[in-house]
Amino acid sequence: MGKQWLWGSLVGLALVLPGTAALVLPDTAALAQAEAPSEAQDAYTQAMGLGYSYADEYDYQTALVNFRRALQQRPGDVYAINAIANMEYYIERDRLAAIQAEVDTLQERLSLAAETKDWVCVTTTVDALIPYAEGLERERLTGYRSQLTGVLDSRTDIEFWSTVCSPDQPLM
After folding, report:
1. pTM for the model
2. Is the dihedral of CA 65, 70, 72, 77 positive or negative?
3. Count of C-beta atoms within a 10 Å radius of residue 103
């Protein structure tokens, strides 16, 4: 304990007293280097800070870029790795939510168009829904689309066509 206090005092004294900068005590160079932050640490800290700031603003793409920069500065860093995983999860979650919102909108339009017998709108809406469907739902929509071709060709209920999907408001 006494030896550590003495070294700490001598190092502190060497830093404070004018003209003592040339004084080099044994093992103090390594101590001074360990205390000075490295450029990599500064870049890491800055990138992590920016990442957290952007994440707080829900800008997950920019946050992800910064967390990846931090990981480049400290490969294998668990905090950067976890932050990257979180951002990737949030980005995927938001992407799926946007797709679900679009599908919900298309399904509402499909219901309304079918109720009003606007077969042109039903057909274009089914065409827009097919890429989102999988498995049996995709087969059902494809079969429904085939039936609609027959309805369109027969011009059934033509007076109701283009009441739901107007040319002024095209499908997304």
Report:
1. 0.61
2. negative
3. 14
Say which DSSP state 38 is in: P
pLDDT in tens, 43-56: 999 999 999 999 99
| Residue from 52, 171, 89, 70 nearest 123 by CA | 171
8 Å CB contact between 119 and 156: yes
Alpha-carbon distances, residue 121 vs 43, 116, 128, 138 (angstroms): 55, 10, 10, 18
Kindly state the greatest CA–CA separation across the chain.
101
**Segment 62-118, tens digit of pLDDT:** 999 999 999 999 999 999 999 999 999 999 999 999 999 999 999 999 999 888 888
